[in-house]
Amino acid sequence: MEIIEVPIEEEVKQAYIDYAMSVIVGRAIPDVRDGLKPVQRRILYSMWQMGLLPNKNFVKSARIVGTVLGYYHPHGDQAVYEALVRMAQDFNMRYPLIIGQGNFGSIDGDPPAAMRYTEAKLSQAALYMLEELEEDTVDFVLNFDGTTTEPEVLPSKFPNLLCNGTIGIAVGLATSIPPHNLREVAQALIELAKDPQITTQKIMEYIKAPDFPTGGIVENRDELLEYYEKGKGYVRVRAKMHVEKVHGGRERIVITEIPYQVNKAELIKRIAELVREGKIKEISDIRDESDKEGISIVIELKKDADSQKVIEKLLKNTALRKNFPLNFVVLVDGEPKQVGIKELLQEFLRHRLDVILRRSKYHLKHTRERLHVVEGLLVALQNIDNVIQDIRSSKDTQEAREKLTKKYNLTATQANAVLDMRLQRLTSLERDKLEKEREELKSKEEYYQKLVTSEEERIKVFIEEMEALIKEFPSPRKTFVEGLEGKHKSESLVVVIYADGQILPLENIQEEKEVVNILSVPVDDVLFLVSNMGRVYWVAGTQALQGSRVSLKDPDEVIVGGFLRSSAQDRLIIATANGYIKKIPLADFEFKAQGVSIIKLSDEKDRVVKILQSPEEGHLLIYTHRGKVLRINISDIPPAGVGSRGVIGIKLEDKDAVKGIRALKDEEYLLIVTAKGGVKKISQREIPLRTRGTKGVSVISRLDSLVDIIPVRDAVELMVITQSGKVFYDRIFQKDMLLSKVDDPAKKRWQMEQGDSIVRVVVK
């Protein structure tokens, strides 16, 4: 054995470089294409091989870890389990790649249960990263002991790197990529595919800022362009909080979202330390009211404390404001490289176009192989009597194969298919099926050939895939971006309020759910929601803008209305099914505990059906299911306190109930909408002005029922929902509708299937 002498400093230097590259490539830095580190890729691949799909049963995490260790990752079991756990934590991953069952840790820093107690399976996002593996889309390499193979990278239709982000520390290198919103990333990829010359500035019109799973508010939007351009910088995030007034003139601060990767328990501990040390003297109490619905850290302030000054101290001295580093270091062609956001997107696009090309070649090959077989079967069926005779007269399979290839000009593959053909396929019906299959295969062959030869066609497929992802994952942005629409507190967004307590931006409207109201909510305002049980819930404007949900306390409870703190005047008018109405001072709604009942009902079966802001003067319409309508002066309704059930608004007939109420202006006409799809316009003067507590006039046929009455001055946009879930969008111009009398029939406007009916109308 030859001994080669090498200076020790050179040997140490080379060994260190080898070690550093091993850590960089093998552990810490993600691949730019699928955004995964080797251990993450191996976990997902193992779970996919084990069949742990989203629609399948969970299995023990210990079994998954054992499979990963045994076949692909010869390292410690705890390292594998920690990686598995992180991919299941919704406070770490914007789009978790694993669905966990059991204790997977918490935002308070609580550790997960041991792997023998927890269970897991793949999420839908992970499935989109794996599903094309069997179509020769990526290269496979030998595992650590050469007994099997593993994918070098995943096909990754889901843009995981930017959507979930990553953090890693290697030898002399570190990476830190924050999570982003899938809708924004997919849209940016679509625009990049259409225009390769797109600038980073244009990209950031789509990718507005990071979108952390824990929410928060991005403060330095104006600086992000420079950081995203060079792939290095930071994003400054602060917690979402608001101030509530409580009895006795005191205030309290409620923190509802904290910066990404901040330990909630440690945060509360730090605030308590500041109070004990006398650095923040204005705080009298702090408590954690967080539950499964979200974070709620309540900070009680002393009387006469300045809440804004306390907030400034908290932001300065705690992790309620945090700088998250941006350091876009990734593996590009196996080498670590610092890139900007455009190059990240370009590399993903390049990867996906390569996957689509390889997938198309794979399908083209298999389509041609099947077409070749089908054409051979059809030749045999056209000469079936002679073919049968030739096969019967052959002494063995080899002789039969030779006869078929020579006599009918078939290939060996086609001849084998004919010999394997069952007798049942000799029917004319089977021949028709084969001819139909041949035409379909020719069409597929043409399609795949076009994809193989044309990058333009592959780009079209990529765009279609991204558009499909946007529909599959329509999650609204969780992190609010300060200064995105302007630097004033008057920033607002139109949101949809649903009966189940969910609030979503209008762009994410879900038509299958019952819409209660559509409102424009300013960021610095508060949205109050009232339920049919008389309970009141509230949501800070910043939460409403990003999508939120209140936790209703009863299975039969639904939201019936909402209003803004700033736009509501002195009182609200509340109507109940039993015909009672009352005006309640707005101050009675001021930040009660969530779900507190402050509207007294007439009896246990009574329910709140409608709320509206009370004008100082004017008229109020009260209308019932059976089409009875009463018009009264708003001034006739006396103010009522929380403990009062109010006064009788309309006298009801047997088995009738109040449907709703509307405030009127003198210049408005009324659109009557019925369950059978009828609409008519009447003058409000057709409804006589009466005193409260009297019966109304009938405005519809006894064979129909009243759905809604909509005041209209010029035009109104409606979303009309039927019992079967069908939705009609309609704009009705007042001038185009003839004026009717109260007893005129409503004319059918929306064509519905027999048995269907209108159940609600939403004014957009």
Descriptive notes:
Belongs to the type II topoisomerase GyrA/ParC subunit family. This is DNA topoisomerase (ATP-hydrolyzing). This protein is α+β, with helices and mostly antiparallel strands and 764 residues long. Among the domains are: 31-158, Topoisomerase II, domain 5 (Alpha-Beta Complex); 240-319, Gyrase A, domain 2 (2-Layer Sandwich), CATH 3.30.1360.40; 353-471, Topoisomerase, domain 3 (Orthogonal Bundle); 568-763, 6 Propeller (Neuraminidase), CATH 2.120.10. It is 31% helix and 26% strand. It contains 18 helices and 41 strands. Strand 29 and strand 30 form a beta hairpin. Mean pLDDT is 87; it is low at 485-490.
Structure at a glance:
By secondary structure, this protein is α+β, with helices and mostly antiparallel strands. The longest helix has 42 residues, at 341-382.
What is the beta-strand fraction? Answer: 25-35%
Q: Which regions have little confidence, pLDDT < 50, spanning 5+ residues?
A: 485-490
Q: Helical content, roughly?
A: 25-40%
The average pLDDT score comes to 87
Q: Helix count?
A: 18
Distance between the termini: 86 Å
Q: From the 3D coordinates, which CATH architecture of one domain would you assign?
A: 6 Propeller
Structural class: alpha+beta
Please name the fourth-level CATH homologous superfamily of one domain: DNA gyrase/topoisomerase IV, subunit A, C-terminal
Overall shape: it is flat
Strand count, sense and closure of the main sheet?
5 strands, mixed
